[in-house]
Design a protein that fits this description.
Sig_transdc_resp-reg_receiver; five-stranded parallel β-sheet; LytTR_DNA-bd_dom; OB fold (Dihydrolipoamide Acetyltransferase, E2P); 9 helices; phosphoprotein; Autolysis response regulater LytR; 2 domains; Rossmann fold; five-stranded antiparallel β-sheet; alpha/beta; 258 residues
């Protein structure tokens, strides 16, 4: 597996290179500190995978990733960063993985094992491009939202990325600027992202805005109870109650054919 490293901190780059070589599955074909150096080097070396620091000193790794996606055979991208605040953006860019600093050897090994399996699968007849979408990306039109590509919503929770099936979501609620996502199995996850961000990501799915503080999966609605001033309350199949504001009642009626 040909790997290219883009990291502007020499010590961090050396550590990552050391851990990657210990897997005995990679050939590091190049390293770069800047975005422009990386773009030239990647175009010349055609790696299978690029380990890309999100926060380069003079550019955003996210912007570099967008430019790499324009290549005829884009490499798989593994984002690396000391913070998890860009995790959802990384998944929107179809990242193969997202690892946090300081690097953990077992985590690096897991990433390489996963990429090896994908590259091997892509090399089989009908498997698609080994370097691009067939290897480490879902097959979809560039720029498609995560739910429309995979049926799952990527949610950053602490230092993890949870991939939640859209069909399992009951509702999303705004709580003090954060978002709580309630699932049909009784579990709930809290994300630092605001509700409006999830509303944008979930466009085109059965999840709709019903209140300034709530999004609801319309298939989870079991009953509608009229309330005061032309509003109503939704009773979900879980027994949870969600208010509907007058502002969003018309849209909900259209969704339900009510």
């Amino acid at each position: 597996m040909k790997v290219y490293l883009v990291e502007d901190e020499p010590l961090a780059r050396d550590e990552l290179a050391y851990l990657l070589r210990r897997t005995r599955k990679v050939d590091i074909v190049g390293e770069a500190e800047t975005a422009e150096e990386a773009l030239r080097g990647i175009a010349d070396s055609a790696p299978d995978v690029v380990f890309l620091d999100i926060q380069l000193s003079e550019a955003s790794g996210l912007d570099v990733a967008r430019r790499l996606q324009r290549l005829e055979r884009p490499p798989a991208i593994v984002f690396a960063t000391a913070y998890d605040e860009h995790a959802l953006q990384a998944f929107d860019l179809d990242a193969a993985d997202y690892i946090l600093k300081p690097y953990d050897e077992e985590r690096i090994r897991q990433t390489i094992d996963k990429l090896s399996r994908r590259l091997e699968a892509a090399s089989q007849p009908g498997g698609g491009s080994a370097a691009g979408g067939g290897a480490a990306h879902a097959s979809a039109a560039p720029g498609a939202s995560a739910p429309s590509r995979t049926g799952k919503l990527a949610v950053a929770v602490d230092e993890r990325i949870m991939l939640l099936p859209v069909g399992d979501i009951l509702y999303l609620a705004s709580e003090e600027g954060k978002t709580r996502i309630a699932l049909a199995d009784g579990k709930a996850y809290v994300s630092a992202e605001p509700l409006v961000a999830f509303e944008q990501k979930l466009q085109g799915t059965p999840i709709a805005r019903v209140h300034r503080a709530f999004l609801v999966h319309v298939d989870a609605i079991a009953e509608i109870q009229p309330w005061f001033h032309s509003t109503c309350t939704l009773i979900l199949r879980s027994g949870d109650k969600v208010p509907v504001s007058r502002t969003h009642l018309k849209e909900l009626k259209q969704r339900l054919g009510w």
